[in-house]
C-alpha cells in the first residue's frame, strides 16, 4: 500500500510532478493506493482551484453518470479509482470483464477518488475524463488513461482527446477546471462511504474486501442475491 506524504494538496493544479509514484507489482489486488491523513480529506469541501476559483461544496452531480451495464441490473458494482494508481489499472479490465460476462446482471459504476498527494497527475487526468464524458467519450478516455498511465501530462491528455475525435484543448487547462465539481462530488461521496484508498469497490452498497478477480467477484455478487434469484453464472 502506498502511503501519502504530508505535503501537497489536491487543487494545486497540474504542472510538473514534484514526485513520482513508484509502480510495484502488487502481491494481491486487495492492495491499494491510500491517503494517510484522513483529517486532510475535509480540505476538499471548500478547495480553491489553481486560478483561485472556489469550487462549490454542494454540486448536483449524478453519482451514477459513468456506468456500464443496464440501469436496472440487480447487482451494482461501484468502484472508486485514481487514474494514476497502478492497482486501479490492474482492476479496470477485470471489472469490465466481470460486467460483460454477467448477462446484463451487473451495472459497473466509476467514481473518482484521486490520491492527489502521491499521484500528481491524478486530478488532471480525472478532469480530462470528465471533459471527455461531456462528449460521450468517458469510457474510451478511461481505458486510454489506464493503458497509458505513465504518460498523463497535459500534452498527452491533449493527444488522447484528439485520438478520440475531441478537441484536445477542451480536456486540459482552464477549460477543464469546471469539471472539478464532478470530481469533488465523487471524492466527497467516497469520504462519506469510508473510502481510504484506491481501488475501493462496493457491491450493492456493501464494501468488497476480496481480490479483484472474476471468481471472488462472482461469489460476492451471488451472495448478494442469495435471497432473490440466482446469479446467471450459478445456473447449471
UniProtKB/TrEMBL annotation:
Superkingdom of this protein's organism: Bacteria
Which species is the source of this protein?
Frankia torreyi
List compositional bias (Low complexity) regions by residue number: 7-19
Q: Which UniProt keywords apply?
A: Isomerase
The record places domain Thioredoxin at: 35-226
Organism taxonomic ancestry: Bacteria, Bacillati, Actinomycetota, Actinomycetes, Frankiales
Family, similarity comment: Belongs to the thioredoxin family. DsbA subfamily.
Pfam entry (one): Thioredoxin_4
Offer an example of a GO molecular function term for this protein: isomerase activity
Q: Which PANTHER family match?
A: GLUTATHIONE S-TRANSFERASE KAPPA, SLR0313 PROTEIN
Q: What is this protein called?
A: Protein-disulfide isomerase
InterPro entries membership? Thioredoxin-like_fold (IPR012336), Thioredoxin-like_sf (IPR036249), Thioredoxin_domain (IPR013766)
Region (Disordered) residue spans:
1-57
